[in-house]
Amino acid sequence: MSGSVMEEWTDLAALRQVSDALADAAIAEATAAGAQGNLLLDRAVRHGVEADTPPAARALIEDAQRLDWADRERLKRGSDAYLAIGTTWLGLALGPGSLTHTYSSPSIARVLVDTANLTRMARRRLLETGSWNIATALPDGLLPGHDGYVHNLQVRLLHARVRHGLLKKGWNTEELGLPINQFDMIRTWLDFTYVPFGAFGNLGVDFTEAELADLYHLWQVAAHILGIDDAIVRAITDQRSAKRLLDAIHAEEGQPNADSRRLTAAMLDALSDLLAPGLGVSPAVARKLAAATLRRLHGGELAEQLGVGWNWTSLVLPFIAAANRFRRWRERRNPALRAATIAAAIHTHHNREEVYSGPTTYERAASQDASLGLPETQDA
């Protein structure tokens, strides 16, 4: 890609009025058919197209499985590179890194707050997002029928159900664009690629150029299953091209708002409770560390806009980063250590009942009638 940011992507703003036609049609079809329609759609997501799969559901599944361009060897390498980060640092980058940047978008924050309970259920949201995040990176996870594929397709349908519900409630599309539109989905995809890949480096968890290329390929496949615009995402293959796209997106959106600050504060509170036992510190100290990590990853200006001030734990982050660099150096030279870190991350996913109980919001919503209202995050 060449030229200025705005010359490369001249119609990004128009993507606010574009959603995901295939998923929206599948939800409309299932809603019109009632309980049986929702069950048939859920079954198609989990098991593939069958004789009684309705037409719109069939079109959605066939599109999601159109992965002849995906390279399984690159997916395997991308999976290893991601899971070798380790569950603790995946969690830290997820909240202060990925979700913070997501919440800084006023339009995305508005959608999340309008789903009613995402501030109150911040802890559960963190855990569920972490589960989806690891499922995406499982070995062969994005192949049809496997956990990553199923979870991403369920998230795609959750988005369509939320769109259906918000539009039914009178969402102002002229002012706000469609809820969970392509502009916002592409931005969120960067929140789980460009943002954490750079964040990990600030925490001492670095990648080679080859690893980054494989990581982007892994997340391009996830984006396709999620219904994100292939034409844009598949052109993003490294941090440089991702930064250009994110710069163009930032030029089209406003500053963080009150919703952004509410979501960020709730996320930091929830993350501190989750991190404190493993770190051997009090929740208050864990929150300071999470806030300091946020400032290190995003800079003081955005942190201040989100209501996150400086605190003394910022002074220890360079030492933590140095310790991570040493750990990564050892693991690159000792395959057994690296394999153990990967195995621990896989164990976390397959034994998630040790962390939280019951199905995730997107799993529950998979067979939920969209006419019943917006899907809600809730503890089991």
From TrEMBL:
Domain ER-bound oxygenase mpaB/mpaB'/Rubber oxygenase catalytic: residue ranges: 96-319
Superkingdom as given in the UniProt entry: Bacteria
Annotated InterPro entries: Lcp-like (IPR037473), MPAB/Lcp_cat_dom (IPR018713)
A single GO molecular function term of this UniProt record: oxidoreductase activity
Record region (Disordered): 355-380
Stretch forming the signal peptide: none
Name used for this protein in its record: ER-bound oxygenase mpaB/mpaB'/Rubber oxygenase catalytic domain-containing protein
Source organism (scientific name): Sphingobium chlorophenolicum L-1
